[in-house]
Amino acid sequence: MIDLPSDMDSVVKRWFPPGVDSIASGREADPVGVFVTGTSGSGVSSIEAELDLLPGSLLERAPDVASSAVVLFVLDASAPLGRRALADLASALESTTTGLLVNKIDVHRDWREVQRLVAASIAEHVPRAVDASFWPTSAKLAERARIAVDPRMRSTLYEESGIVDVHGFVESALTQHRDVLRERKYNAAVRDAAAGARREILAKARAVTSVSNTAGLRAERARLVDVRDRTRAERSAALRSRMQLARSETIHDINDATRGYAVSAREAIESAGRARLRHLHVELAEQLGMAVSRVDSRLTERLRAVDIELGLSGEPLPSKDLTVDHAEPSVRRRGVEDTMMILVGASAGVGLGRVVMSPLSVVPALDIAVIPASLLLGAVSAWWLVRSRSLVADRAHLRTWVTDVSASARSSLEQAALARILATETAFSAAAHETSRSVALSADAELERIESELRAAAEHRAAVLAACDRDLATLDRGIERFGGPIRVDYQTSER
Q1: Which listed residue, of 4, 40, 212, 344, carries a Cα 20 to 30 Å from 366's Cα?
Q2: 69-82 burial, b for 16+ CB within 10 Å, e for fewer?
Q3: Angle, CA of 183, 186 and 188, to the nearest 5°
Q4: pLDDT of 355 higher than 60
Q5: Closest CA to 331 of 390, 262, 266
Q6: Please, are residues 37 and 73 in contact by the beta-carbon 8 Å criterion?
Q7: How far apart are CA 491 and CA 82, in angstroms?
Q8: Which of 327-331, 401-405, 466-470 has the highest mean pLDDT?
């Protein structure tokens, strides 16, 4: 027997330790006897019984393929071997003299086609079969031969059953030299061990080259690159959109506030008396200040919401409260209209007095009293008319002041609000740039780490593949001394 090369022995020990034990067992093997096996339902037990009951049969039995000198494999004549059965038979074909018994030929007429197909499968998938031969048999015919009374009939049935030929084949095979049998077992064990080592090497190579090993790292790298490239653009676009929305909503609030202030001021002026009218401008100024405060508060809330939503600076917003400067209402000066109203009121009062007192003038005794009474009534009427006209003029003057203050307040508020929004947007842009820069730096650091891990994985993969290639080359060189290339394992799944 050829000794196993040291480098091949090292490869088998590292990759397939069970193969070392199988090689040692093959070296120490002492094949004796016959081992009978076969496919399910093929009549293995019947064949064994007929061989034992054959007159003069003294066949020694082996417990398994590894310790047997001859293997009888029984297959049904109705169908060829499946992949799993052929895979199970391969080890026996490569290490032991094997007889393939095509049983039940008396029942199945197409047994020759089945035999041809099985022979073709063995030639294709087990090219290193050491000694395989086919034997058409029928356990049923052998059983009928045993119970036959006529000697000629018995002889004919035994001959047709093929059991006698199988028995002769087994006896002849058992006479082979023990060294030949042991060398076959040893060479087959070496090839099986090398095949096991090759499977493990190829599995390792597939594992290290699998995309799944670095799929997580590659996905994380793609995500970080996307985050780094998109963060700044998305933040800038979102900031512009939010600030534009805040600008339009603030302008709307200013218009609503000044419009509401003007309406409430006019209502207050219309219902105010002379005494309240003197101090109403102070109250109206306070109302305007409250409206401005509400606009300022809502603007602050909007800007803070933008800050929180975009995760920007988190620092206090630029503080520039919205204020409105307004002048006190000027003192209304009396003009020509007031003088004309006095004259018109006096004449209207005198005329009214004469009209009222005219019924009394027909009384001679009251004639003297009519003139003073008419003058007094006319003076009172004139005084009331002038005073009423003065109140109306004062209200009109204050309404004009309210209109001017509202327009001035709207203009001032819009200018102040837009200036504050612009200052805040500038601060937010700087904060967004800094935040994007921090995110980019963090992403770059993570990308560097991932790239380092991917390079390490690639180097490890290259080293492992190089070692696998060296070990495969060692197996290929060594196995040439034990019967040629390593057999590719046949698929074990059933067809």
Answers
A1: 344
A2: bbbbbbbbbeebbe
A3: 105
A4: yes
A5: 390
A6: yes
A7: 10
A8: 466-470
- Give the pTM: 0.50
One-letter-per-residue 3-state SS of the chain: CCCCCHHHHHHHHHHCHHHHHHHHHHHCCCCCCEEEEECCCCCHHHHHHHHHHCCCCCCCECCCCCCCCEEEEEEECCCCCCHHHHHHHHHHHHHCEEEEEEECCCCCCCHHHHHHHHHHHHHHHCCCCCEEEEEECCHHHHHHHHHCCCHHHHHHHHHHHCHHHHHHHHHHHHCCCHHHHHHHHHHHHHHHHHHHHHHHHHHHHHHHHCCHHHHHHHHHHHHHHHHHHHHHHHHHHHHHHHHHHHHHHHHHHHHHHHHHHHHHHHHHHHHCCHHHHHHHHHHHHHHHHHHHHHHHHHHHHHHHHHHHHHCCCCCCCCCCCCCCCCCCCCCCCCCHHHHHHHHHHHHHHHHHHHHHHHHHHHCHHHHHHHHHHHHHHHHHHHHHHHHHHHHHHHHHHHHHHHHHHHHHHHHHHHHHHHHHHHHHHHHHHHHHHHHHHHHHHHHHHHHHHHHHHHHHHHHHHHHHHHHHHHHHHHHHHHHHHHCCCCCCCCCCCCC
CB 101 within 8 A of CB 166: yes
Q: How many CB atoms lie within 10 A of CB 183?
A: 19
Measured distance CA(84)–CA(464) in Å, rounded: 32
Q: What's the distance, CA 78 to chain centroid?
A: 53
Contact of 68 with 96, CB cutoff 8 Å: yes
Average pLDDT (461-483) is: 83
